[in-house]
């Protein structure tokens, strides 16, 4: 009897030490009703299922034990919908026709505040093409238009680089740094070294450098750079086999309204 009681106490103690995640989701999109949603994350260089649930009357729920805080993605089938940080606390996901958002916990709040700022810059960049059309209709000389809008586009691009770099640097030692680094590098066909990536890596902490994705990406990018610089004329840039194709890039992360 004492042994059985001891085992119950031990299990309770272990359970109390383990953290857990709890995700409450809602959707106003009727087409989602009856659909199965998945939480997936990169593990051992592969995108793997963590949890799944059904959407019932616009509501869905994920919950489970958490061995470590991690960046995951919400999927419907093979389509990645949005990133979400699995951490302890009450995580809320809202999905409608206008926007998708995650909040309720510190890292998710920080991530989506950043995504909102990034989307604002993307909207400003997209607006330039509309302005170009309007300026042409107003009879403004094309060279004047190109000079003016190119200057604005360069300024917005510089703001975007600064926003992304600062966010990654400020989050080197939690999951947001490597997670956003993965999102910005997923736009490339194969790992490359850009001035922004070189800047980030020059400031990186050891923990960030040793993140499996970051470490593999940077190593492959350096090898590709060497090939393209003529050290191996016959070799072509190598694809990053660890880069999950379903990871959303910052160019297609849903906008918050």
Quick overview of this protein structure:
The chain is of the alpha+beta class and 257 residues long. It has helices at 2-17, 106-137, 142-170, 176-185, 195-203, 206-209, 212-231; strands spanning 19-27, 36-43, 46-54, 59-66, 70-76, 79-86, 89-95, 100-103. The protein has a four-stranded mixed beta sheet with strand order 4-1-7-8. It has a four-stranded antiparallel beta sheet with strand order 3-2-5-6.
What does this structure look like?
This protein has 257 residues and is α+β, with helices and mostly antiparallel strands. The protein contains seven helices and eight strands. The termini are far apart.
Key phrases:
257 residues; alpha+beta; 4-stranded mixed beta sheet
Report low-confidence residues grouped into runs of 5 or more. Answer: 3-16, 240-245
Q: What proportion strand?
A: 15-25%
Number of strands: 8
Class computed from helices, strands and strand pairing: alpha+beta
Topology as a string of helices (H) and strands (E): HEEEEEEEEHHHHHH
Can you summarize the main beta sheet?
A: 4 strands, mixed
C-alpha end-to-end distance? 59 Å
User: What level of helicity do the residues show?
Assistant: 40-55%
Which helices and strands appear, and what pairs or packs with what?
Elements: H1 2-17, E1 19-27, E2 36-43, E3 46-54, E4 59-66, E5 70-76, E6 79-86, E7 89-95, E8 100-103, H2 106-137, H3 142-170, H4 176-185, H5 195-203, H6 206-209, H7 212-231
Parallel strand pairs: 1-7
Antiparallel strand pairs: 1-4, 2-3, 2-5, 5-6, 7-8
Helix pairs in contact: 2-3, 3-4, 3-5
């Amino acid at each position: 009897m004492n042994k059985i009681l001891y085992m119950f106490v031990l299990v309770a103690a272990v359970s109390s030490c383990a953290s857990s995640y709890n995700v409450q989701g809602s959707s106003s999109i009727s087409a989602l009703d009856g659909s199965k949603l998945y939480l997936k994350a990169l593990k051992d260089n592969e995108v793997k299922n963590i949890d799944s649930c059904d959407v019932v009357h616009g509501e869905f729920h994920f919950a489970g034990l958490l061995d470590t805080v991690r960046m995951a993605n919400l999927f419907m089938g093979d389509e990645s919908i949005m990133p979400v940080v699995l951490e302890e606390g009450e995580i809320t996901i809202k999905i409608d026709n206008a926007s998708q958002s995650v909040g309720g916990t510190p890292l998710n709040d920080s991530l989506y505040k950043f995504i909102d700022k990034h989307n604002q810059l993307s909207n400003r960049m997209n607006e330039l093409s509309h302005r170009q059309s309007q300026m042409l209709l107003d009879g403004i000389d094309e060279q004047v238009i190109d000079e003016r809008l190119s200057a604005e586009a360069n300024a917005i691009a510089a703001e975007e680089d600064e926003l992304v770099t600062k966010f990654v640097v400020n989050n080197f030692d939690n999951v947001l740094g490597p997670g956003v680094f993965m999102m910005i590098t997923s736009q490339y066909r194969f790992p490359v070294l850009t001035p922004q990536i070189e800047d980030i890596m020059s400031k990186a902490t050891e923990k960030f450098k040793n993140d499996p994705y970051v470490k593999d990406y940077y190593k492959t990018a350096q090898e590709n750079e060497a090939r393209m610089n003529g050290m191996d004329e016959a070799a072509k840039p190598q694809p990053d086999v660890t880069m999950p194709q379903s990871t959303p890039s910052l160019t297609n992360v849903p906008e918050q309204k």
